[in-house]
């Protein structure tokens, strides 16, 4: 017997901003950072956070009900997730993006209906105000907060890219639109042979250098100042663009991909990662909502599908594209011109597009994933398969070249 429809899902979604703002306010007042020191009883916690007695218990217990806090009798504690990701003193802190959402995006999204009818940004630029990026980059304090927010939203992807991409075949890399430097730091920490850095507007330099120096990597990671609309991109074996392309309109996206292609050497690679929309535009709600956020924030930016990105890259001149879902069930089919494949699963609604530019080798592979775990298998000089990490997928590969991905095959 079919269950009758109920309005529960509609009400939960329609009033979802209640829970969202409760979490954002908790981050704003430093609740999770305070509880990371020690669990606290209600009275002590309320006093330290200067909470009014009328609402304090409801506020804290709502966070318990939302799964953001734990409570043992009268003592409150972080969950394992909030303790790891919402304690400002930990390098794993992702609250920067939530702080920005609380201070900026929450009120701006109140004008979504107007944006849908006008196609115009609803942020600082509204009504002829200053462009979003110009406003952010003109204020050092706001810029640092914004760059920290970018680290927060990208840190999970950065860690996975550091661990799963075949960096052993490369020597240099540059993150284009590097922000604070989260990805270069994770890659450099994981691979001592690599050197590189980040490319961004000049005001970003001091924030990047402070963050890199705090991890003891100032001798290997360097800042390259420039404007990617006006200046050529630095040359490196690998270029990375994370949460960059979605800020811009289609013509600008294609221009940036073209600049990356020209900056790469033979056998170089471009990594693009975004909250890409699924090709059917039915499942990745986060990617679709991120695209609406680009409507709020930018004159022409939008998010896109893996198929969209692959088509633009091929038009640019890349010979092979590889798009990978990083959450949910994964099934792959593979074309030609790739020498090594990495299968990943990562955090919140992320997809990774790895693009190989190959000029002097040809490969043909078929791939069938048999286990939903991270896997890496490389092709040896003889054509034999070499196991990587995790359960290996079944694959058949044949090669006809003396080099792969710009360096000699092992």
Could you please describe the fold and organization of this structure?
With 410 residues, this protein is an alpha/beta fold. Helix content is 39%, strand content 18%. The chain has 15 helices and 15 strands. α7 (95-108) crosses α10 and α10 runs parallel beside α11 (182-190). It is globular, with a radius of gyration of 23 Å.
Across the major sheet, the strand order is 6-5-4-7-8-11-9
Based on DSSP secondary structure assignment, what is the total number of beta strands?
A: 15
CATH superfamily descriptor of one domain:
Vaccinia Virus protein VP39
Helix content: 25-40%
String of helices and strands: HHHEHHEEHHHHHEHEHEEHEHHEEEEEEE
Overall residue-averaged pLDDT value: 79
Structural class: alpha/beta
CATH topology value of one domain: Rossmann fold
- Which regions are unreliable across 5 or more consecutive residues at pLDDT < 50? 327-410
Give the CATH level 1 class of one domain: Alpha Beta
Largest sheet: 7 strands, mixed
Number of helices: 15
* Dominant shape: globular
Characteristics:
15 strands; Rossmann fold; seven-stranded mixed β-sheet; alpha/beta; 15 helices; Arc Repressor Mutant, subunit A; about 400 residues
